[in-house]
């Protein structure tokens, strides 16, 4: 970015009350910086700002994924979804001002603190569950659920973020899917999305897949990481990974201070069901004994 453009952007943002600070993250087509907004009364709100330079993005991202992401993130409001404060576009730069999560992301937390006790994991997983249930009720599949994309706010609560691969699912009548417990008919996906370590076997094997059911597999991997401090399948070769997934070849850590309860293992096993038609639903998940007991 030239000095002239930098000054222009800075002045334009200041006119709207926004100040951009230090870089705190970097993505393929974007960077994230600290920011703050000062309203007319002088009240300061700390934010994060995702900056996307459209002229440096791939055509597919610019024309397909990014417009979809903007439409979705500006339409959602939930206590456990990262809230977008404002979106501004100046020339080829898009500034997405969003809620600042002072606790960092879940992967950083687990790497620093180690596996969670079941009581703590249960509390956080419940927050994820109701967030994804809300998304699905709006007809939206996340398609990139992983610990890196789950943030921790100042109240030590979880926020699902990064909707770069999120997609609206539509039923045969062209209406948004509204899930009141079970999934209604909707379009499937064929695009490989997200991280290999969190992707369901049907995604890994490049089959047409139900993105909402694939989200549930990813939730199972997240819970596994919370309780074991590692992903269930340490394999990057897709063919070998798919075989491990289909054969349920994952092992719970034997180095935990306290062995996992049978109920916790059953919850993970139900989500890491390799056959999507037999995988547990969100409605069934909420009724599991592990989540209903303190």
TrEMBL record:
State the SMART domains in the record: S_TKc
Identify the InterPro entries for this entry. Kinase-like_dom_sf (IPR011009), Prot_kinase_dom (IPR000719), Protein_kinase_ATP_BS (IPR017441), Ser/Thr_kinase_AS (IPR008271)
Q: Which UniProt keywords apply?
A: ATP-binding, Kinase, Nucleotide-binding, Serine/threonine-protein kinase, Transferase
Gene Ontology CC entries for this record: cytoplasm
Protein kinase domain span:
18-291
Q: Name one GO molecular function term.
A: ATP binding
Q: Which SUPFAM superfamilies match?
A: Protein kinase-like (PK-like) (SSF56112)
Which GO annotations describe the biological process of this protein?
intracellular signal transduction; microtubule cytoskeleton organization
Q: Which family does it belong to?
A: Belongs to the protein kinase superfamily.
* Descriptive protein name: Protein kinase domain-containing protein
